[in-house]
Amino acid sequence: MARPPFRCTKGTLRESALAGSASQEDIFSAMAAAGTGHENWSSRSAFILAAVGSAVGLGNMWRFPAEAGENGGGAFVLFYIFCVLLIGLPVLLSEVLIGRHGQANAPESVRKVARDSNAPEGWSVLASMGVFAAFLILSFYCVVGGWVLYYIGVFAGDLVQTGLTGGAFEGRAAGDVEGLLPGLFGNGGLMVGLNLGFLVLTMFFVARGVSSGIEWVAVYLMPLFFVLFLGITIYGAFTGNFGEALAYLFTFDFSKLTGEVMLAAVGQAFFSLSLGVAGMMTYGAYANRDTNLGETSGIIAGADTAVALLAGLAIFPIVFAAGLASNAGPGLMFQSLPLAFQAMPFGSLIGLAFFVMVFFAALTSSVSLLEAPTAWVFEKFKLVRPVAVMIVGAGAAVLGILSSLSFNDLAELYPLGFIPLFAETNFFDTLDGVTAKLFMPIGAILTCIFVGWVADAKLIDDENGLDGALHQTWRVLVRYVCPIALTVILLAGLFPETAEQVFAVFSGGETPVEVVE
Ligand code: PFF
């Protein structure tokens, strides 16, 4: 297939833009004239770094250890790996190939695949839902990004005050250190300010465009992330209780595998791989035709899973060595770890490095969350990119403020309290639950049906870069295994009590132990 002319001129355009001779409008009209509506990644490795950057984020560093700890450790982790291999990876490939074929924002890409397959264009609803879900996730993701900024400030201040060699927060009571997070939660103004600060940073990079903004963040911050990450993991292995962490994360206890644990694992796999929410479709649209998508998807899923497992192996040894609880949930990274850093030599420095690393991971992910709705808004309404960024960012700011306040002034507000699954769930947790438990699995089920059954098989095979047994396996997974498994898991999560009873029948009459507190 011939390349659209814009791709050949992108470098020139970017240079002239940098030299100040091309305005945003010039670039936009050149893109529109070329018919692509967007830029492309400058290379295959830039695509891989950006996609790994999207996948690796707070989901790996904060959500994965918290979910593993709350859902019984090994049972969750093994089922998680199973979900990534048999469900996440096939869906990831399906999403990027839709994007690459469509070369446009996610709903438009699905529409193009549908058109080229003589299928109803209404299938684009799966991507529209995804774009909306990405927007919802962005809003609460930036709230947590704000907490990361806060801890960077706290550790930097501590480093200046207490010096390099001692532990962090020298001379301060453990209760004080643990109290940092509740202290932040209690300060609605600070929460909102930090949330908006992180959102504005994200908006800044997305407004700069694919190559000079999104790609720049990935190419510079992801390598830095990996250096810091490896350093901290090795440090944790030598100074912490590595053996206990290993046993905790990899001892599989079947009795702990309840419907709820399974849903938590699949939700986490989807969140971590940025699936079901149009993010990977959007990034796939910027991939060149010579990129092998099968191979690239394998690299992305492999890197993301490795980082999640290593994050567990970095965090739990430190937590166990300090004698702290493994099931502290969301507080694990923000409360337990700072306590552990207190007991460590070079604690302030390690703490600062840790939160800087998490910040890099979070920014490369939030950028992709903002890009999915932004690409849709600016292509659909023919706006310039910065205006689209402002519109989406303003919406995310409003929801983000509500999420920030759900830890303090609006703590009693349960937006979906009338649904048992979300009873007594505040605004922030409702957005998290609705996106991970509903939007992501439903989006993925529809994607599998679309790619496996509706779209033209030849078109799909031209895009997926697979052959032989791998191709056959992928097709079986996308057509049968993924939609069926996802539907079962979705229902198990929505109706936990019925699922427990069915589960008990299959596991020989014993009701599994309830591990979720
Ligand atoms: N995968 C990211 C993480 O693990 O933090 C979160 C995320 C990014 C989800 C982008 C969805 C998305 F489209």
CATH architecture: Up-down Bundle
**Percent helix among the residues?**
over 70%
Our count of domains comes out at: 1
For the record, give the distance between the C-alpha atoms at the N and C termini, rounded to a whole number: 55 Å
Enumerate the spans where pLDDT stays under 50 for 5 or more consecutive residues: 1-36, 510-517
Structural class, please? mainly alpha
Assembly status: single chain
Proportion of residues in β-strands: under 5%
- Number of DSSP strand runs: 0
Rounded to an integer in angstroms, the radius of gyration calculated over CA atoms is 23 Å
How many H/I helices?
22
Task: Give average pLDDT, whole number.
Answer: 87
Attached small molecules: 4-fluoro-L-phenylalanine
**Major sheet characteristics:** none
> The CATH topology is what?
Amino acid/polyamine transporter I
Q: Can you tell me about this structure?
A:
By secondary structure, this protein is mainly α. The chain has a single domain, classed as Amino acid/polyamine transporter I (Up-down Bundle). 75% of the residues lie in helices and 0% in strands. The protein has 22 helices and no strands. The protein has helices spanning 5-18, 24-34, 44-55, 58-70, 74-102, 106-116, 125-162, 174-178, 180-185, 188-207, 210-239, 242-250, 259-272, 279-284, 293-321, 331-342, 347-380, 385-405, 427-454, 457-464, 468-494, 496-506. α1 (5-18) runs antiparallel to α2 and α7 crosses α10 (188-207). The structure holds 4-fluoro-L-phenylalanine (PFF).
